[in-house]
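Thread title: Can someone regenerate the structure for this chain?

I was given the following input by a collaborator and told the matching structure tokens would be attached. They weren't. Posting the sequence so someone can regenerate them.
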Amino acid sequence: PRMDAEDGATLIYINTPITLSQIYTVCLKSASASPSIKFYMRYGSDRSTAGTNIFTAGHTTTTETTPDIITDFSVNMIPANNFIWLDASTVSGDPSFHMTIYYTSEG
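Best answer:
Regenerated them for you:
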């Protein structure tokens, strides 16, 4: 989907614990030749709270053709009964953003 700064999106609700292994992202251009998006991923049992950051300082994706493969998590074990969501902080170039999350169920 298209993302704007300050947009947020719930990605998944997990009912068993999981371990994140990799996240692939691609930022496809629209009108701009240099699309990018800086985002934070968080988790928590209450989606209306700030949640716990999965990346320490957020992550910026600018790749258009090959996926940006993310493996540097500050937290990779997510307990059961939590939402995982994305918060965009900086967006340029009106990109279309795509994400694939690889994880192992621990339950």
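Strands lie at 8-14, 18-28, 36-44, 52-53, 59-61, 68-70, 77-78, 82-92, 96-105.
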